[in-house]
C-alpha cells in the first residue's frame, strides 16, 4: 500500500532537516579549524634544532650507454 502524501512530505522534511543539521555541524567544525590557522602558535620560536639541513648537491650523473 502506498504511503499517504502527508506522511511522505513529513518524512522528507525531517530528512532534509537532519541533513541541514549535519551540514551546519560540518560548517562549524571547518570554521573553527580555519580560525585556528589564522594565528601563529602562541610562544612559538623556531630554533635551529628543528630545521632540516639542506641536502648536499648531487654530483652530475654520467649518461649510461
What keyword list fits this structure?
1 helix; single chain; mainly alpha; elongated; 65 residues
Summarize the structure.
The chain has one helix at residues 5-37. With 65 residues, the chain is mainly α. The model has no long low-confidence stretch (mean pLDDT 85).
Q: What does the model show?
A:
This protein is mainly α. The chain has one helix and no strands. The chain has one helix at 5-37. The longest helix has 33 residues, at 5-37. The N and C termini lie far apart (79 Å). The mean pLDDT is 85.
Distance between the termini: 79 Å
Classify the beta-strand content into a percent band.
under 5%
Q: Give start-end ranges of low-pLDDT stretches.
A: none
- Helix content percent band: 40-55%
* Biggest sheet statistics: none
**Sheet/helix structural class:** mainly alpha
Number of helices: 1
Kindly state the number of beta strands.
Answer: 0
Q: Secondary-structure element order, as H and E?
A: H
Shape: elongated
Q: Over the alpha carbons, how many angstroms does the gyration radius reach?
A: 29 Å
> What is the average of the pLDDT values?
85
Amino acid at each position: 500500500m502506498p504511503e499517504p502524501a502527508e506522511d511522505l512530505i513529513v518524512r522528507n522534511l525531517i530528512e532534509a532537516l537532519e541533513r541541514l543539521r549535519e551540514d551546519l555541524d560540518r560548517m562549524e567544525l571547518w570554521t573553527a579549524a580555519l580560525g585556528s590557522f589564522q594565528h601563529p602558535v602562541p610562544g612559538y620560536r623556531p630554533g635551529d634544532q628543528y630545521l632540516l639541513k639542506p641536502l648536499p648537491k648531487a654530483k652530475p650523473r654520467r649518461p649510461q650507454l
